[in-house]
Amino acid sequence: MSLQQTARMENYKQFLCVFTLALALGFVSVAFALAWVLHFREGLGWDGGAAEFNWHPLLMVIGFIFLQGIAIVVYRLPWTWRCSKQMMKLIHAGLHVLAFILAVISVVAVFDFHNAKNIPNMYSLHSWIGLAAVILYPAQIVMGIAVYLIPATPVYVRAALMPVHIYSGLFIFISVIATALMGITEKLIFSLKSPAYKDSPPEAVLVNVLGLLIAAFGGLVLWIVTRPSWKRPREEITQGVSNYSTSPEDIKVGTAMTSRTEQESSLETRRRNGKAEESG
């Protein structure tokens, strides 16, 4: 095995460790959110009361944070590189749509609760940024489907809009993380009276840890999606390798071998061009 192949194997192991940690943090975040609303709050219901409000933080953590994070990094999973790019686009879009549906239900829950209790809506920074994210998110999904899922879209349009699509997606994700941290802090300040939030009762400690888990999950998602070496290879490379390999390690090695072959071919072409110029 060459040094380049060994390096790619190590690169795959690093990705696997980071992704596994992100996945674990995501699942633990959902578990903490569920424990919060079931053990410390009023449980779950749909009657305009506090139990209906509790759907808001729970579904936001599940949909707008966890599912959106997985949707963002799904292209980076080496074991999916055998799938066609079109299939991965459908999975990517499907996860985002599911996350949006859960986010909408959570927003309806909090508005129902506020209206039933005569609590004003849309007065806090948490609600302003949160609603902006909920509005921008479907716009991002529609643009992605229109530009990247419809075959008729010209290639130059896709290429031109790709930086915008990537930036806006990460911007929305970061905004959602920030909004969630503001929201859970706001909820604790309003809800904890005796003992108060400043006295660090068990509920406050659990929710503070939930905030740390959410922030760590978001940080790992951003790390995964910004590593150039973990980017999905070109379609023709993955299709060629998939005909002969079944494991992520084989895909990595095959990609490295293909890249090396392309480099050697390029060097050979330059040598020939140099000889032709000397002969001339």
TrEMBL record:
It is an enzyme of class 7 (translocase). Signal peptide: none annotated. The chain crosses the membrane at residues 15-38, 58-78, 90-111, 131-152, 164-184, 204-225. It comes from the Eukaryota. One of its GO terms (cellular component) is lysosomal membrane. GO terms for molecular function: metal ion binding; transmembrane ascorbate ferrireductase activity. It is a multi-pass membrane protein. It holds the Pfam family Cytochrom_B561. Keywords: Cell membrane, Electron transport, Heme, Iron, Membrane, Metal-binding, Oxidoreductase, Translocase, Transmembrane, Transmembrane helix, Transport. Its cofactor is heme b. Its EC number is 7.2.1.3. Residues 21-226 form the Cytochrome b561 domain. It is found in: Apical cell membrane. It catalyses: Fe(3+)(out) + L-ascorbate(in) = monodehydro-L-ascorbate radical(in) + Fe(2+)(out) + H(+); Cu(2+)(out) + L-ascorbate(in) = Cu(+)(out) + monodehydro-L-ascorbate radical(in) + H(+); monodehydro-L-ascorbate radical(out) + L-ascorbate(in) = monodehydro-L-ascorbate radical(in) + L-ascorbate(out). Its main location: membrane. Residues 241-280 are annotated as: Disordered. Homodimer. This is Plasma membrane ascorbate-dependent reductase CYBRD1. It comes from Cyprinus carpio. The lineage of its organism: Eukaryota, Metazoa, Chordata, Craniata, Vertebrata.
